[in-house]
Amino acid sequence: MSVSAQNGTKVDNEANGVHGKKRREWRVEVSRRARQTYNPLRTIIEFMDIKPNPKKSLIPLSIGDPTVFGNLKACPEIQNAVIQAASDHSNNGYSQLIGSKAAREAIANHMNRAQHSITPDDVYIVNGCSGAVEMSIVALANPGQNILCPRPGYSIFQTVTQALDIEMRQYNLLPDQKWEADLKQMESLIDENTVAIVVINPSNPCGSVFSRSHLEDVIALAEKYFLPIIADEIYEHIVFPGKKFYSLAPLSKNVPVLQCGGVSKRYLAPGWRLGWIVINDRGGVLKDVKDGLAKLSGVPLCANTVIQGALPAILKNTPQSFYDEVNGKLHRTATVAFEMLSEIEGMKPVMPEGAMYMMVGIDLTLFPEFKDGLAFIKALVEEESVFGLPGECFCYPNYIRIVITIPEEKMREACERIGVFCANHRSNTAVDHADSDDPPCK
């Protein structure tokens, strides 16, 4: 700004063309972050332009929302806790930015059943587990740096990192080893710009549950290179008979861990959008990160306060029988799908050990008319109205992810339709498939 020599008034030099030109037409540009934000699930599905067979009802094995089919419902104790919280006018306003003290104390007490070291000051309440993942990444990584994520893995990590100019380097999960991480390949991805390792356990999309020894091997690698771990444990309590879930943080002596969790999956309420980050610091190395998380919490102001108000009662009063019933239903449906799909030549299901999903391989050499898995799945939807997410959504082509939250009888029908489709298209002449022009995993 300058001062007029005649009357002393301030003049905007830039507006008058001294330092720039005024706009003379509309030119509103999208931001780089918005332009770069990419959700592979949505983008790939839109690219496929799927139209189900109008003569057959659609069986959507693609939707990761356990409430869709109506066979899985929150129990009365959960619902009543929310009703009571909504009736209490004290939950109508803003909470502390990082969450109400009562809700954070409840989460800390819940975590301390296994860890015995968490305080309310270690807990940050956010908008859903996806929000927890995003905030953890933003707090740790700058543009140009990289984090290690599993392949196949949940797409939110790709969406967040790409939007922020953070590189996502993918370490492989091995289907013939119950989707354990390829640790040698993981180590080869680490360089001076690596700032964190992401572990999703139990896994979306694989349904795997890591053993204690495997988690300890991952921790040892993180310790070797002084890397914190972001542990996405939203499915921590959905584990099938014969398997045990080990939370990563209690196993770590020296590696700091950011645990991401929430109410969406265990309590069958993803729409309530309440998640959390629990900081498991080691040696005080996350002090600045905790300060950063507190500052980042000022952007959304706070998470859903009614659900925060209900959270202590939800965590305390939900009976074990509710969890057992949900896990039993999921395990039975998964078993049905695995057994039926295993009988179909060309299908290679991997039996899940937890979570809500199953990965099914497609042996494309037996289906030469389809150039890739996307074409296979597109035709499956158009002919049989059965839709699972293509593996390309998780950077893992020639696989399909199906949900196991569907009622058992619907799963049987879906598998029968898949069997009919495969029988109609299977060839006795195996062929190789060249690379396609379909959208890559960015």
From TrEMBL:
EC class (word)? transferase
Q: Which GO terms describe its molecular function?
A: L-tyrosine-2-oxoglutarate transaminase activity; pyridoxal phosphate binding
List the EC numbers from the record: 2.6.1.5
List the catalytic activities from the record: L-tyrosine + 2-oxoglutarate = 3-(4-hydroxyphenyl)pyruvate + L-glutamate
Q: Does the keyword Cell inner membrane apply?
A: no
Q: Does the keyword Ion transport apply?
A: no
- Disordered: annotated segments: 1-20
SUPFAM superfamilies annotated for this entry?
PLP-dependent transferases
The record's similarity note reads:
Belongs to the class-I pyridoxal-phosphate-dependent aminotransferase family.
What name does UniProt use for this protein? Tyrosine aminotransferase
